[in-house]
Structure formats: structure tokens, C-alpha cells
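Before relying on records like the one below, remember that each one covers exactly one chain. Contacts with other chains, cofactors or solvent are not represented anywhere in the record.
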Amino acid sequence: MHEVKGNLRMGNNISSYVVIPARYASTRLPQKMLLNETGKPLIQYAYEAAVKAQLPIGVTVATDHADIYDAVQGFGGQVVMTGTDAKSGTDRVAEVAATRSDVEIFVNVQGDEPEMSPAAIDQVIQLLADHPDVPMATLCTPLRSREQLEHPACVKVVRNNNLRALYFSRSVIPHPRLWTDDMLAAEPALFYLHLGLYAYRRDFLLQMVSLPQSPLELTESLEQLRVLAHGYPILCGTTEHCSVGIDTPEDYAAFVGREKYRTT
């Protein structure tokens, strides 16, 4: 089991733990967690980033399949089997949280984001530590590409002045009535790309997975909209680091190319 130095910056006894949900089935990219054209399975990259974070006391992969379990053990990682009927990655994180009453903050790191920054993991934990009134936190980054802005796979977020999320959408938000290209270069940024990284207080996480889905969540297929629909705030911090999720064969091919460039 990988245990790392935790809570060095927080000056209190808040404990945090990273869970990387890893589902075997994937419609657009079958068995993507096990793809290994770089010499490492995809899941290993997210794991290695997480163990480099300074604040969590530990990291584990939560999976529903023996092949992923064996792959994680193969590179020396901590892994647990979760139920095959889990509806989402959040449900897998909650399964782990239910067994760890000693941990206050759980972080959901996506297994298909191999370029996740360890500093981003620490940042989202620190957000909850600094704002005890907020049950959940996430991150976003300025969005400067019109192609990304208009792509439904890129989730956008708008926030209020206190950095609480107002809405997440696959559509363009805010939606300009009259478009000008200089909107993409605005300072502060006008558009923000949401990153698939979440921190939850344990009690809230266990409650969240039992909340009924909202029409907004079902329409956009965005689980975080369930939280907003039920009236809970989500604190959304800003980072300049933008990790890229792997959803298609083209995404993975691009990642392999970047990885080969970095190692040559």
C-alpha cells in the first residue's frame, strides 16, 4: 500500500484519501484502463500522479474487474474490488468511503486522465480544508479554444463571485448573444473548462449517492448537477493545469504521442 505524507500544509488533523474508480467496460474505448502502448497500463499514470500528491494519506484503485485488479497489483498499487452494480465512479468512491470512517475528505481522481497534476489533487483537498461550510469541491481552468468550447465532451462551468458553481453544461455557457473572437482571450477568463476531479466530505459523499437523480443530471449526463439540483454548493477553484481525459481511440493515440515525446 502506498502511504504518503499528508496534511503538511493544513495545520489541522483533517485526513484525505484518493480513490481512483476504474470501470472495465467502456463503450467508446473498450478496456481503456488496460491500454498499454506506452509500456504502462493507462490506469498506472493516474495512480502515479496521485501518490505524488502531498496531502492524501493514501491512494487506492476501486475496480469491478479482476483484470484491472491484477494490473494494479502488477505495478505495486493498492486496489480493492467494488460491486459490479455500481452506477458510477462516485458510487465506487463511496463504497471505499463507507469502510474508512477515519478519513474526512475523499478525492475522486479519474483513471482515464493520465496527465492529472499532483498539485491539482492537493489544491482540491485544500479548498475543502479552507472552506468548512462547503461539502464538495472541484477545479476548472480557463478555456481558450473555440473548438473545446463548442465540443459536448468538454464540460463547461459558470461560477458566482464566491467561486460556487452555478451550472455545468456540455453546451456553451455563458452563451454569447453576439460572438467575438476576443471573448476567448478575456481577462479574467469568460469561459471555464471543468476538470474531472472532485473532493467530498465523507458524510456528504455517503449522502450524495443516495440522492435521487435530477432531470438536469439525466439531460446533460453530468452527475454534479444532482448536487446543485438538491441545493448543495460546489466550490470550484481555478488551476492553469489542464488534464485531458481519454475517451476515444484518437484521444489515446494523442496521449501516446505526447508520452513518447516526453520520454525521448
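Strands lie at 16-22, 59-63, 79-81, 105-109, 136-142, 156-159, 165-169, 192-201, 235-238.
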